[in-house]
Amino acid sequence: MKSLEERLLKATNDLLSRAADELFATGDLTDARLSVLEVVASLHAGWTVEEYWAHTREVAPAPAVDPGPWAEKVLESVTGTEIPVPLALAALSREVLPPAQQRKTGAYYTDWRLAQMLAGASVPQVKADGPWVDPACGSGILLVAAVMAVNARERDALIRDRLCGADLAEGALRGALLSVASLATDLESVVAFQRRLMCADSLRSGQVWNQLAPDGFALVIGNPPWERLRTSRHEVAAASGKARHYGQSFDAEVDLSESRSEMLDYLERVVTGTRLQGKGEHDLYKLFLELGLAVSAEDGIVAQLVPAGLIRSQGTETLRRELDALSRDLQLLVLENRQRHFAIDSRFKFLAVVGRVGDGRRQPIALRVADRTGRLPDKAVKISRAELLRVRADLSVPEVRTDAEWELFARLSREGISVGDKNGPWRPCYRRELDMTSDQRNFERTQAPDALPVIEGRHIAQFRNRAKAYRSGEGRAALWEPLPLGRAALTPQWFIRPERLKRGAKAGAARSRVGFCDITGQTNERSLLVARVPAGVVCGNKVPTLTFPEGGADREDLFVALANSFAVDWVVRRLITTTVNFFLLDSVPLPPITEDSPTGAELVELTRLIAGSEGSAAPDLWQVAQWRARADALVAAAWGITVDDMRLVLDDFPLIDRGQPPLAGEPRSTVTVDLVLATLAELLDESAPAAAQRVQNARGVGATPYIPAEYA
To answer: What is the C-alpha R_g of the chain?
Structure first.
C-alpha cells in the first residue's frame, strides 16, 4: 500500500536514485541522494550549489560529472507533479525505512497536503514574537509549509531569525536545510537557520528549548511520532524479518527481554517530570503534545497532527483537560486517511489540533469533520465548552459535522442516561473471557466431547451470534462465510476445554449473557453490533461480554434492543474510531426506558422475537424487519426523536440496503429508511404517506429491509 505522495513521486524517486548512483557513487545511497537534492534546491533557488556547499558543509562533495543536467531532469520531474517543489524536496529527502522500523518509530511521514493544511490553519494565527519550531521536524516538510504560508518578502527574515527544528537523524536535518533553503534568496539566512537545526531528542532537551526561546515559541508545529512505547511479540518478530499477520500462531518463541529492557530505560528518562500522560500505555505523540504546550509562548500557537485518540481515549483525558484549559482558541480538524495521506488503512482517523495558548476568554471549540471522501467542510461547528463539559464530562469530543448534529447529540446526551452512570439503572459487569493470543496454546481445531466453542467477533451481528461460519485459514487470512438467518449454525474456528478456562470465563460460559463486537468502524454499514450469547460457549477478547446483576435477563434484552437501534448507533458513531471499549460504552447515553415500563416490556419481547428468528427453518424476513422497525421507532419516540430528527440520523448510514433492488429510476434502495420513517410517523401520529407508499413499492420490487449487503 502506497500513499498518494509516494505514487506521484515514484518516477522522480527512481530518477533521483539513478542520478545519485552516477554522480556520487560513495556507497551511501541516502547521502548521495541528499547531495543531488542540494544541487536541485540550489537550482530552484537561483544560486550555484558550490555557493550552497561553501556556506553549509565543511567538506563539499565531489560529483563524478557535472551535476547540472541531472538536477535539471529531477527538477523537471518534480515540476510535473502537483506537489510544490520545496515540499517535494522535503519528501524526497526522507530516509526510506523498512516497514518494521517505520512502525517502531511511528515514522509515517507528513503528506504535503497535510503540511499545507496545518500551516494554513496555524501560521495566519501567529501573533506572538519568538521562534517557530518543529521539535520532530524530519526532513522539514512542515517547516517548509510554514515558510510558504507567509508573504514571500518575509521569508528570508523568518528563516534567518525564527525558524528552528530538531530530529534524531542528521540526514533528515540535511533534508530540512536544503528544502527550506530552496525558498531563501539569502544564503546567510540559511546559515543562521542551520545553527538552529539540532540533532537531539526533543523530549530530553528542556535546557536547549529554554536557551532558544526563553519566553517560549510563537509557533510549535509538528507531526510527532505516533507510536506507543511498548514492546510486542509481533513487532519483535517483524523486526527480525518474520512475516506474519496478527492472530497467526508463532512458529517459535520470541524473546522480548532485551527489547523491553531498552524500552523501560528510555521510558524512565523521557517520562520523568511529565504530568499529562494519564493512565495506560505511553505514546510518543502525547509526550510531544505536552512538550508543545510547555514550550509555547503566551499567545503562542501549538499546531500538531495527532491520532484521533486525543479527543476520545480514556488515557488522554488529562491531556485533553490541559489543552482545553490552556487554549484560548481551539480548532479541531478530524480526518480519515481516505485521500491516502499515509501508506496505511484508509479508515485510519487522525486530527489537526491548532490551539492558541494563553490567558483570556476561551472561545467555543471550532470543529470540522471531514466527509467520507476526506474533504473538510468550509464551516466549523462551534461547540460551547460549558455544554461539552455538561454532556461529556471527560471532555471527549463527539464528531458532529453540522450544527444540527451537535444540537441533536447534546439533546440526546442531556436526556439520556449513560451506561456507566453510577446512579443509573445499567451499571454493567464487563468481562473479557479469553485472550485470542495468550490463550491460543489452549485452543483446539476439533471439538472434544466436553470442549466449548469459541465465539469470535465475526460471529456477532445485530441480534445475532451465528452471523458467520469459519471455513479455513488463520488470523487475518481466515475465511468466513456470511450465514443468512435461515442457515445460521454455530461454526467456530476454535474450541477450548473447560478445565483450561479461568474461573471468571468458566462462570460466564455457564450462563447466557450479552456480547458485542468491539472491532468496528464509524463508516461501517452498522457500527454497534450487540447480541445475546448463549450458555455453553466462551467468547474471545474481540467479543467482550456484559451482564446486569440488578436487572437479570429482561434488562439484558432491553439493552440489546437499545444498543442495536439506529438512534443509539448514531450516537456511538460520533464517539468511535475503530473499537468499542468498556470506557467508551460506559459513556454512551441511552434513552430513559426501563424494562418494567410498557415501552421497555415491548422492546424486551421484540428482542426475543428478532433473536429467535436466527436459525429458524424459514424465517419471515419482512416480519423480522417490521419487528426491528418497531423497536427502532419505540427507542426514538422514547428519546424525543422526531421524524425530521430520524431523517438526520438515518443519513449517517448510507451503506444500508446496498444489496436490495432500488425503485424504478433511483440509484439505490432506501427500503429500511422508508420503513423506519413510516413506522415512527405512525407511532407519533405524524403524517408520512410518501414513506409508507415507498415501503409498499419497495416490497413490490423484491426489496427487504434490514438485510446487510453481505447477506443479500
So the answer is: 29
CATH superfamily of 429-609: Adenine-n6-DNA-methyltransferase Taqi, Chain A, domain 2 (3.90.220.10)
Decide if pLDDT at 100 tops 80.
no
Give pTM, 2 decimals: 0.89
228 backbone dihedrals φ, ψ, rounded to 5°: -70, 140
Q: What's phi and psi for 427, nearest 5 deg?
A: 45, 65
Cell of 119: 500551516
pLDDT in tens, 48-96: 999 999 999 988 888 999 999 999 999 999 999 999 999 999 999 998 6
671-683 vs 689-700: helix axis angle to the nearest 10?
140
Record the cell numbers describing residue 476, joined without a space: 487475518
Q: Which residues have C-beta within 8 Å of that of residue 565, sequence separation ≥ 6?
A: 631, 632, 635, 636
CA distance 607 to 673: 20
Which set of grid coordinates corresponds to residue 208? 536547549
The pLDDT of residue 276 is 64
* Top-ranked range on mean pLDDT: pick from 61-70, 200-209, 596-605: 596-605
| pLDDT tens by residue, 414-472 | 999 999 999 999 999 999 999 998 999 999 999 999 999 999 999 999 999 999 999 99
User: What residues does CATH 3.40.50.150 cover in the chain?
Assistant: 4-227+283-389
Mean pLDDT of the region 650-675 = 97
Sort strands 545-547 and 429-431 into parallel, antiparallel or unpaired.
Answer: antiparallel
Q: Which residue reads 491516502 in cell numbers?
A: 340
Cell numbers describing residue 131: 521562534
Sole residue written with cell 424465517 = 619
Residue type, 439: D
Q: Which region among 17-26, 75-84, 235-244 has the lowest average model confidence (pLDDT)?
A: 235-244
Residues 6+ positions from 235 with CB-CB distance below 8 Å: 100, 103, 104
CATH, range 4-227+283-389: 3.40.50.150
- Burial label for 31, CB within 10 Å (0-12, 13-18, 19+), is middle
Helix (H) or strand (E) holding 235: helix 233-239
**What burial class does residue 87 get, using C-beta atoms within 10 Å of its C-beta: 0-12 exposed, 13-18 middle, 19+ buried?**
buried
pLDDT, tens digit (0-9, with 9 covering 90-100), for 384-396: 999 999 999 999 9
Given a contact cutoff of 8 angstroms between Cβ atoms, the answer to whether 625 and 706 are in contact is yes
Cα 312 to Cα 451: distance, rounded to the nearest angstrom: 39
Task: Please state, in angstroms and rounded to a whole number, the distance separating the CA atoms of residues 399 and 571.
Answer: 10
Ranges of H-type helices in 495-612: 503-509, 552-563, 566-573, 582-587, 598-612
Residues carrying CATH 3.90.220.10, the chain: 429-609
Measure the CA–CA gap between 653 and 706, rounded to whole angstroms: 12
Query: Longest C-alpha distance within the chain, in Å?
Result: 88
**Of the candidate ranges 135-139, 236-240, 515-519, 564-568, the one whose mean pLDDT is the lowest:** 236-240
* 379-386 average pLDDT score: 97
